[in-house]
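User
Class, as today's exercise, I want you to study this protein, comparing sequence with structure tokens, and judge whether sequence predicts the tokens.
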Amino acid sequence: MIDKQWASAAEAVADIQDGASLAVGGFGLSGNPIALIEALLAQGTTDLSIVSNNCGVDDWGLGILLNAQRIRKMTSSYVGENKEFERQFLSGELELELTPQGTLAEKLRAGGSGIAAFFTQTGVGTQVAEGGLPRRYNADGSIAVASPVKDVRSFDVDGTAKDFVLEEAITTDFALVHAAAGDRHGNLVFNKAARNFNPLAAMAGRICIAQVEQLVEPGQIDPDRVHLPGVFVHRIVEVGTDIEKRIERRTVTKTEGA
């Protein structure tokens, strides 16, 4: 029997060293592996290169690592909602590789599937393909590091020649993900929108660490319900169903007569 359960989040992330690269699940604050992020913050790991759709908010999600200046580089598709992110990027303290959202998802999936690169039409005719997007600024506001020119090739699509840009896959040293349930073999089930980038991040990490709200025995999850097979998961930590889950922006509608 392959039992992948670890006793605590702190033990599960203990070997993540300074300078490591991480793929982290979540979209906004939905599906953030907050217990693993907090454990990483507590142990003092720094100089991290993180791939995630966004960087949380100022006081939650990956934002707590950012506030502690533990992140060297972010590879993301959306970086709003976080004033400290803006400050660090514009001051030259943080490197940012801005990537179209669908492209980022496919780069992670490709990395986890052993695919080195792929061609996509997304970004053709823009700085995504032509280069020059600022990745890091100098303190005086000049560009220290810019995105490179990417390979663009023409392919025949339904009798019409169309340009495609080459995007390289992403793999990372570790992956941190959140799931609603999992078994001791690492098979995971995600809840609704919290599924988002979590399976893709898990696939891309050479070592995947999953926090789950409920841990069950192997065989208790119907195989047809498994969203991510245990082959992609190396460590699993139970964090309980009462773990705090924040909402990025709460929007309510007043009902008639309220």
Q: What stands out?
A: The mean pLDDT is 96.
